[in-house]
Amino acid sequence: MTDAMHLRTVPSIRVLLLFSSSDLGGAERSLSRMVFASKDIDYQLATLCGEGPWCDWVRSEGYVPVVFGRGGSDSSGIMLGAFWRLIRHLRRSPMDVVYVCGARASLMLRFLRILIPRIRLVQGVRWNPDSDSRLDRVFRYMERLTHPLVDAWITNSLITRQTLICRCRIPAERVFTIYNGVASLPENAPAISMRPMEVLTVSNLNPRKGHREYLKVIRKVVKTLPDARFVFVGRDHMSGEVQEAIHEAGLSGVVRWEGFHFDVSPWFRRARVFVLPSLWGEGCPTSILEAFSYGMPVVAYAIDGIPELVADQKDGFLAAPRDGEALGTAISKSLRDVHMAQEMADSGREKVEQSFTLAECASLHAAVFADISGVSSLAEA
Length: 381
Fold this sequence. Notes:
This protein is of the alpha/beta class. Helix content is 39%, strand content 17%. It has helices at residues 26-37, 53-60, 80-92, 103-111, 134-146, 158-167, 211-224, 241-248, 265-270, 286-293, 324-336, 338-355, 358-372; strands at 5-7, 13-19, 41-47, 66-67, 97-101, 120-125, 152-155, 175-177, 198-202, 229-233, 255-257, 273-276, 298-301, 316-319, 378-380.
């Protein structure tokens, strides 16, 4: 099946989209939006954790999430009772497919399939598990050991698909790549020349996102561009370490942490450049697509799936992994050269409009679910 496949008609396929967390991260936000945009699949949204920001956001969008957990929103709090409540739910409300995001949750469901034998199990892999971290090593080992219990994998980057095939020994025909998408292009996004010298990063504070290391880059940029200002938007998962590092680096007047917000459009609308300083573990960051849609160039390290989104020197700049000097140079160029930045912004906006829509994302998901469910309704576009 290729990305050119689309649904013609699909009988009602029931899919439980199951998250292992109730936090509102990139995976939860992007896949839930895909569900909101879907017209072909009967989705039910659920979490194995207790109440959390994701639940509140889903309700604000008019959907009722199923909450199987009784604890907090973090996946570390998943208890066996949540799985038993899930099994009982699936017996009362039969589903055709369980689409699970979360390695531990997926692993547990594999061994519980004896209790729900007729359901197809699909695992979403939203990062590239190719590093030497303990988490990625364990993930690869367990995939090699238990992959016959999974019907399909959906990745949001080609490099992740390659990792599953080559390093986890999963048959290629069972791994599908579907990029994230945006619902629509914002109207009346200001031109680059009309925006302040502001650099935006939208990402939860997490060690792999590279905020602390990024502060060293910021110090060098402001030495030559003292009017530049940097904004971080996202939930703090580092217990104040980043804020403390900002203060210790003497950057309190330069860098602002705005915390978590359901609606980040005001910051996308005013920033001149978007920077994602992640160090590892990225698939298809929706924040990059959103930055393009709001008309700004993107600067990032060339890690994992990011080069599949950002074309170096066409719609942004890619620096070699952990090359802070190159990252800083790219940020300075993007701030100084307004004409170049506007051309890059226009290129990125056009790319999103043509290739990264939520409608396409939803259609391709529906095609995968129809395929593994044995529904003969696919046609070559």
